[in-house]
Amino acid sequence: MKKNDKFTVTIEDMGEDGAGIGRVDGYIWFVKDALIGDTIEASAMKMKKNYGFARLVRVITPAKGRVEAKCPVARACGGCQLQELDYKEQLKFKEKKVYNHLKRIGGMENLFLPEEAEQAAGVPDAVVMEPIIGMEDPWRYRNKAQYPIGREKDGKPTAGFFAGRTHSLIPVPELDCLLGCAENKDYLAAVLKFMEDFGVEPYDEANHKGLVRHVLLRKGFASGEHMVCLVINGKKLPHEKEFIGRMREAGADSISLSFNMEKTNVILGTEIKNLYGPGYITDKIGNIEYRISPLSFYQVNPVQTERLYGTALEFADLNGGETVWDLYCGIGTISSFLAQKAGKVCGVEIIPAAIEDARENAKRNGLDNVEFFVGKAEEVLPEQYEKNHIKADVIVVDPPRKGCDELCLETIVKMAPEKVVYVSCDSSTLARDVKYLGENGYAVKRVRTVDMFGMSGHVETVCLLSRKAQ
Ligand code: SAH
């Protein structure tokens, strides 16, 4: 077999990112956009010793659950991986992925899928996963979009998304991504028109020239407020006044610039210049109100976030007097949820702007039993433990994809809380950390997945770990 050779393969499995996996004469092929159960014609792209990558040429026999993609660029765009899979099947895929990780990496021999409850009966210490919490409508759920700006073939500025694993820009049809809110296209059109009218150049990665890199758009789904933040390769936007006027006309409540002059894949620079509005938008989850600055992390799917936090709160099972630490707290979203039921909540977060938001949010909601620390969880927690002998009844962690630093886990074990509630956006690092905690006195009691990212391969998991009797 060599590059561009065509062959037939039946897909038997799906990889982490949703790519189909099939075998031909024992050799493993990864085929993007191919689904379990599909028989396809594929074309070889890249070959390694034991496995290779191929392109889907055509589906010969479609899998059960194969549906037509709603978006015409679903395959080319790197944003969605599972659009051609029926939503119910997407949920099953995600649940199974978490299950496999916890079993294989986490060593959880006692774990069962929800549909295996009968098999689990009679197994000592069996943990049956609770059914995944899916969305009623898996479209237009995102409150945040970050569009790279580039050029059309004819040179005109355009907005799009990067193709999977590359930085070639796929223009979004009609500027309307179906995962984002419908108003995004109006803001994008206004930005592009402004660029055309005033000759403001899009950024070009190849030579690090040009000005406009990304447009960050956010909407408070509960408040209806809109944020526009233009990321530029420079310190000055020409015709700034006109830009503000155009964005206000489009309906923006908060307008800002982010300066990013680095040669980097990181989207936002660290410096923000506020152009109009208070420097943030507000939103509500449950009965808690939040303010959100451009640099702060905020969950992208507010409907499912309420369910995610609800699950974390249920797992924490607080009765009013507990001291809770909320590590990787962002703008204090989970902290505020917990504070309504706990004695005291302490949050730790690395981004100073997010902690400013967190403190403001606590005030806004009249919560006086929360305290926030700026810094790395793996530094703040050990330091507070050594110096101030802090205690915790419950520790909640919600780390980024790379999971918890071992120093952080080590300190958690030393602090010996009754419960650890682990909220995770990457089940492979969750499984690694669960293994560590399992070897150091904790056992997983409950697991539930929540789908925050329909059409993509990502899934959120909440895990309750309890301290084993000594
Ligand atoms: N719990 C919050 C945020 C979760 S996202 C929410 O649900 O909204 C993870 C957060 O961890 C981000 O805000 C990120 O800035 C922060 N973070 C990343 N590395 C960190 C570290 N080493 N220590 C503390 N916070 C960190």
Question: Can you summarize this structure?
Answer:
The protein is of the alpha/beta class and 470 residues long.
Q: What does this molecule look like?
A:
The chain has 470 residues and is α/β, with parallel strands linked by helices. It has three domains: 6-61, Nucleic acid-binding proteins (OB fold (Dihydrolipoamide Acetyltransferase, E2P)), CATH 2.40.50.140; 144-284, OB fold (Dihydrolipoamide Acetyltransferase, E2P), CATH 2.40.50; 301-467, 3-Layer(aba) Sandwich (Rossmann fold), CATH 3.40.50.150. Helix content is 25%, strand content 31%. The protein has helices at 87-104, 117-120, 184-198, 240-250, 302-316, 333-339, 352-364, 377-388, 406-415, 427-439; strands at 6-14, 20-24, 27-31, 39-47, 51-61, 111-112, 127-128, 130-133, 144-151, 157-162, 169-171, 212-219, 226-232, 254-259, 271-276, 281-285, 288-292, 323-327, 344-349, 370-374, 394-397, 419-424, 442-450, 460-467. The strands form five sheets. An eight-stranded mixed β-sheet has the order 8-23-24-22-21-18-19-20, with helices on both faces. The protein has a seven-stranded mixed β-sheet with strand order 11-10-9-12-13-14-15. A five-stranded mixed beta barrel has the order 1-2-3-5-4. The termini are far apart. The relative contact order is 0.10. S-adenosyl-L-homocysteine binds at residues 297-299, 328-330, 333-334, 348-351, 354, 376-378, 398-400.
